[in-house]
């Protein structure tokens, strides 16, 4: 009687790398997410493919495309990830200890231009807490320990998250004084199409907003395009054209002038989110409460 060989146990490291590639769409993006190297992530994926006897990714025009085999195991892999992170949360000090780190995720603009001005007061109030800032424009998954607290312009939808609306961000149309010396300021919304517009590359948020106020903009209406919000901001400050910016930030920049102030641009809500399981952590709760007050005042 021949006994079958027992199945090879999954190495959790391989599954973690697989999920990172699945989410990032590339080895380099997965390496940045995990803080590892691209060759290591590639080896992990290859090892997992060998264990499963299936190809998990194929190279496409914009990166790595998951195969049907990858998609078929994605839900189970994420369940493993959620369980592993739940264990990590239990083991990394979720009690009343006020010593330790708290990871805060925020958009690039908020992380660069808003949070640094607030952290001094936070350090004075909570000297034993170390703050790790995750600068990202994507919705960080608090379930996977990418962050303990997230500042976002949309309400998180995960049922296991607690979210508090702490304010709003008003959006305005701006151009630099130097740009306006070379071009007459727009008087009506349709006039914007006669200007060098600064917008996003793949994100259609600005296009949809212009359509809502009767401006039939297309991707080709923008002479400068980037989905990186910091690049977008610097292009505006440099006088490359007319762009859209949060009023709390633009009003601090002396070289910018607001245009069409009566244009009805809907404000963006500001949400602070935290995982339900860590609401019992004194230090996370203290940072959450501090940010709820300080960010609202700064905006």
Describe the 3D structure.
This protein is α/β, with parallel strands linked by helices and about 300 residues long. It contains eleven helices and twelve strands. The strands form four sheets. It has a five-stranded mixed sheet. α1 crosses α3 and α2 packs across α3.
In short:
By secondary structure, the protein is of the alpha/beta class.
Low-pLDDT residue intervals, each spanning 5 or more residues: 1-7
Q: What is the number of E strands?
A: 12
CATH architecture of the largest domain: 3-Layer(aba) Sandwich
Q: What is the spatial order of strands in the main beta sheet? A: 4-3-5-12-6
Secondary structure elements and pairings:
Blueprint: H1 12-24, H2 27-34, H3 38-52, E1 57-60, E2 63-66, H4 68-91, E3 100-106, H5 108-113, H6 115-125, E4 129-135, E5 149-152, E6 161-169, E7 171-176, H7 177-182, E8 197-199, H8 205-212, E9 222-225, H9 229-237, E10 243-246, H10 247-250, E11 256-259, E12 268-275, H11 282-298
Parallel strand pairs: 3-4, 3-5, 8-9
Antiparallel strand pairs: 1-2, 5-12, 6-12, 7-10, 7-11
Helix pairs in contact: 1-2, 1-3, 1-4, 2-3
């Amino acid at each position: 009687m021949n006994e079958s060989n027992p199945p090879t146990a999954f190495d959790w490291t391989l599954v973690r790398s697989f999920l990172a590639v699945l989410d990032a769409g590339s080895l380099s993006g997965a390496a940045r997410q995990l803080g590892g190297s691209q060759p290591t992530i590639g080896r992990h994926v290859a090892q997992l493919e060998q264990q499963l006897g299936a190809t998990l990714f194929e190279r496409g025009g914009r990166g790595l495309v998951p195969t049907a085999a990858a998609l078929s195991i994605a839900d189970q892999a994420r369940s493993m990830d959620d369980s592993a992170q739940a264990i990590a949360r239990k083991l990394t000090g979720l009690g009343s200890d006020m010593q330790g780190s708290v990871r805060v995720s925020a958009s690039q603009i908020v992380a660069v231009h808003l949070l640094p001005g607030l952290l001094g007061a936070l350090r004075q109030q909570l000297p034993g807490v170390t703050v790790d800032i995750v600068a990202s424009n994507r919705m960080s998954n608090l379930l996977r320990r990418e962050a303990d607290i997230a500042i976002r312009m949309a309400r998180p939808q995960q049922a296991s998250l607690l979210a508090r609306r702490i304010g709003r961000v008003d959006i305005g149309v701006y151009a630099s004084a130097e740009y306006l010396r070379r071009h007459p300021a727009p008087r009506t919304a349709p006039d914007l199409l006669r200007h060098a517009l600064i917008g996003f590359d793949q994100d259609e948020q600005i296009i949809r907003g212009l359509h809502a106020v009767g401006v039939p903009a297309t991707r080709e209406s923008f002479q400068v395009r980037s989905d990186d919000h910091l690049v977008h901001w610097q292009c505006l400050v440099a006088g490359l054209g007319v762009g859209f910016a949060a009023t709390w930030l633009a009003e601090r920049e002396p070289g910018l002038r607001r245009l069409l102030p009566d244009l009805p641009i809907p404000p963006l809500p500001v949400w602070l989110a935290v995982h339900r399981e860590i609401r019992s952590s004194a230090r996370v709760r203290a940072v959450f409460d501090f940010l709820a007050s300080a960010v609202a005042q700064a905006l």
